[in-house]
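Pilot study result, target chain (329 residues):
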Amino acid sequence: MNKQLQAQLAQNNFVVIGRAGMDFYPDPPGTKTEEAVSFFASLGGSSANICVAICKLGGKAALVTRVSDDAVGRYCLNQLDYYGVDRTHVHSEGGESRNSLAVVESRMEDHQSVIYRNGAADFQMDVADVSGIDYAGYSALITTGTVLAAEPSRTAAFHAFELAKSAGIPLIFDIDYRPYSWVSNEEAAKTYSRAGKMCDIIIGNDVEFGFMAGDYEKGLDKARELASSTASIVIYKMGELGAITLTPDEEIRTGIYPVTALKPTGAGDSFMGGFIASLANGSTLHDAVMRGSACASIVVANVGCAPAMPTQTELDAFLSAHAGPTNPE
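Predicted structure:
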């Protein structure tokens, strides 16, 4: 990793664009949604989860989004406060817009996640929301692909990209492709390609890179193309097969930390938070990827996303107790 990028991230203070939501988990774990009589509630939303992950690992994170001006939106604000996330740039949206809501089962077999995103408040974020931010005061701007799925949020996000680049801070992008959020695959592919060319660190799985390439067999080629042209770091995740981390100078193959998974969700947000926080704390690129992988394993083995994000003490304890990662394929 180039020294300039490493020095920038070492400030360990990030601005994150994207949604905060409420998650419901049927309780106890293993319960099907249709059979549940009680639920466990927690903060959710990919960008909010990343903020929590960074804060629990000792960094600072400020979220930029809109939440609904109702009890659910206020729940999200209270949860951001609870986890120490700076919500100076989180605004309430009135009218008929509603907060993101997810019902997520803590089970692997026949897992069901039901996401409510119609009229989402976070998609109402506009250029005004991102224009007054002092980007130079942050280590980097982080966002996920979900923020690009609708207007005016898309235009606002790209405007924030331009402002961040003008301020000299790197852009970090989790592809996070969710088909249900998009009008068409063609629009999504075009938008993701535009974002990818602007970003310094890009993280996604093999399917997402394949989608960007327009051919699921060419995802790794797309990742390599980005690493050799515009990005400093590209992480190509392959699930149980581990990951390939690409830079202009090298490729690093890594495995995963096997666990008994309770649910399949939250791994990507936890990986991002753990990876970025570890780089900020001085880890080598290889070690940061492995610590991000460990964070992902911890989250899928526990209920919830935000509450399951590990602290530094919990992460170190996991790494000390675990037998070790799998050999990379």
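One observation from the pilot: The domain at 3-321 is CATH 3.40.1190.20 (UDP-N-acetylmuramoyl-L-alanine:D-glutamate ligase). A full batch analysis is planned for the follow-on phase.
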